[in-house]
Specification:
single chain; mainly alpha; 2 domains; 4 helices; elongated; Rho-like_N; DUF7218
Amino acid sequence: MAKDHGNQIKNDKLYEDLREQGESKEKAARIANAKSNGSLDHKGTELEDRTKDELYEEAQEIGIEGRSQMTKDELIDAIRSH
């Protein structure tokens, strides 16, 4: 059973899984919260159909570094591989 990390972490199970995989507390929290609010649910929406600004925002929420220098195609690849 996932430990309750308080109201800052919206998806405790995902947070714990990410921490076990070696992610930092900050990155695990960003990913868990982004997944919880639906911004990581890109499987139902084609990333290619999104604007570069939308992709940039998602990359920012999940903590992809170097995103400001990326093209739209690079942002798509980075989000998919994250």
